[in-house]
Design goal:
Elements (H helix, E strand, L loop, with lengths): L1 H59 L4 H4 L1 E6 L5 E4 L13 E8 L6 E10 L5 E7 L1 H51 L15 H50 L6 H29 L9 E4 H18 L3 E6 L4 E4 L1 H17 L6 E9 L2 E7 L32 H11 L3 E6 L4 E8 L2
Parallel strand pairs: 7-9
Antiparallel strand pairs: 1-2, 1-5, 3-4, 4-5, 6-8, 9-10, 10-12, 11-12
Helix pairs in contact: 1-3, 4-5, 5-8, 6-7, 7-8
């Protein structure tokens, strides 16, 4: 802080010094101009009527010089006064044409006054002195010097006071932020950095960090919920598989009990594999490392390919699968993950359409974005349940009799996030409309 205080003090000092010098120079030019004008006027009188007319002109100007500030003196070659308002030629003042500065004694006083004058030698040997009292000018400059000194002192004191206050304020805010960080590191993930509400750099940083903490807390809670649900979901099929195999071994009499148990166990193993595969896809889609090898994907062409792939499954369920896409829809991303997104949405539409109806996949360009939607004619999802079903292992209760792990829409949401898009679940009147909006390019 001392460096900045010194810098401000030096800057103010230099600025005021420049103002003082400019003012002094301007006053000096004004004084010289006034003296020159008066001297030229008197010299014109001299050229017209000689020293006698000049003496008469000076007699007319003879006033108390302490009141007007004007100084006049006409002396002969022996410096004997001829006219003017000075009693005699100033001591120690050379008789030479040009500018001179000296002091004179005020009449009936011991006070001396500074005078600036112009000396002119006349053709007849006389000498003319025309000047002015500088007392008021010097007093003005002295007042300006004092004002400049007080300005520098007061500015320095003010800067020191403001610097101490600002440093203390910043130190307190940094300590408060550090204390919040320590509480967060100790496990209090609900803690946030304090925001003073003054909209300065500290508030901007605190708000950015708080947004990051909200995202981290959400991801942490989602991860904890995902692992808890995964452990619960995988434990049941593994336990059933173990019990069936043990019972088959205990009651095996050469019949088909073991074969039946193995088939049932294989179904549970498939369920476990699908769950693990979905969890792996969520983990991959929530990491930006996948997009480091992003490629140009034509989302329209990919949609048509996925519709052709699932058309037999839809027809087997008595459904119509239709695709409406634009010619070219370039999107930078992972072709594998985008294909998985379409697969999950089409499978959900077929699974929960309850047979019959139409499934429409559309992909359109809209104001620089690419909008992908999958619409079915099933029962849809109530508005209050739409946010919940996007979380892992969350399913509607009315779908408990339908197989699945509850990870399909979670994978879709993770893939959309990875591609910097937005996901919305809407009514299709009837049915569900899943809308994914991606930035184009």
């Amino acid at each position: 802080m001392a460096f900045y205080v010194a810098l401000v003090a030096i800057t103010v000092t230099l600025l005021l010094a420049a103002i003082y010098l400019l003012t002094a120079r301007a006053l000096d030019r004004d004084v010289s101009a006034v003296i020159d004008a008066e001297a030229e006027g008197l010299l014109e009188r001299y050229e017209t009527g000689g020293s006698l007319l000049l003496a008469d002109s000076l007699a007319l100007r003879r006033t108390d010089w302490t009141r007007t500030g004007a100084v006049y003196l006409l002396v002969d070659a022996d410096l004997v006064p001829q006219a003017g308002n000075l009693a005699g030629w100033p001591k120690h003042l050379a008789v030479a044409s040009g500018w001179a500065q000296f002091t004179v004694l005020e009449p009936n006083s011991t006070q001396r006054h500074p005078v600036r004058a112009r000396i002119v030698r006349l053709a007849d040997g006389n000498v003319l002195l025309v000047g002015t009292d500088l007392t008021q000018h010097l007093r003005l400059l002295r007042v300006q010097r004092l004002a400049a000194i007080w300005t520098v002192l007061l500015t320095t004191v003010l800067v020191v006071a403001l610097g101490l206050w600002y440093a203390r304020r910043n130190r307190d805010r940094v300590r408060s932020a550090a204390a919040s960080c320590e509480r967060i590191m100790s496990g209090d993930f609900a803690e946030r950095l304090p925001v003073a509400g003054v909209n300065d750099e500290f508030d901007a940083l605190a708000q950015a960090v708080n947004q990051m903490l909200v995202r981290i807390e959400t991801q942490t809670r989602l991860l904890r919920t995902t692992f808890d649900s995964a452990a619960h979901d995988l434990r049941t099929p593994l336990y059933r598989m173990r019990v069936r195999l043990e019972e088959a071994l205990l009651h095996d009499q050469g019949g088909g009990a073991i074969v039946g148990a193995i088939h049932a166990s294989l179904k549970d193993v498939d369920h476990v594999q699908r769950t693990l595969s979905s969890l792996l896809q969520i983990a991959r889609a929530d990491g930006d490392a996948v997009l480091s090898a992003a490629e140009a994907v034509d989302l329209g062409q990919l949609s048509r390919e996925m519709v052709e792939l699932y058309l037999p499954d839809a027809e087997a369920q008595g459904m119509t699968l239709r695709c409406e896409v634009d010619v070219e829809l370039p999107l930078r991303g992972s072709r594998q993950l985008l294909a998985q997104l379409l697969a999950n949405l089409i499978e959900n539409a077929i699974k929960y359409g309850h047979g019959g109806g139409e499934i429409v996949i559309t992909a359109r360009a809209d104001n620089g974005n690419i909008v992908l939607s999958v619409a079915d004619r099933g029962q849809g999802i109530p508005p209050g349940e739409r946010e919940r079903v996007l979380r892992p292992f969350e399913r509607l209760h009315r779908h408990d009799d339908i197989g699945g792990s509850g990870l399909g829409l979670s994978v879709v949401a993770a893939i959309v996030r990875l591609h910097r898009g937005t996901l919305a679940l809407e009514d299709n009147h009837p049915g569900l409309l899943v809308r994914c909006v991606f930035p184009g390019g």
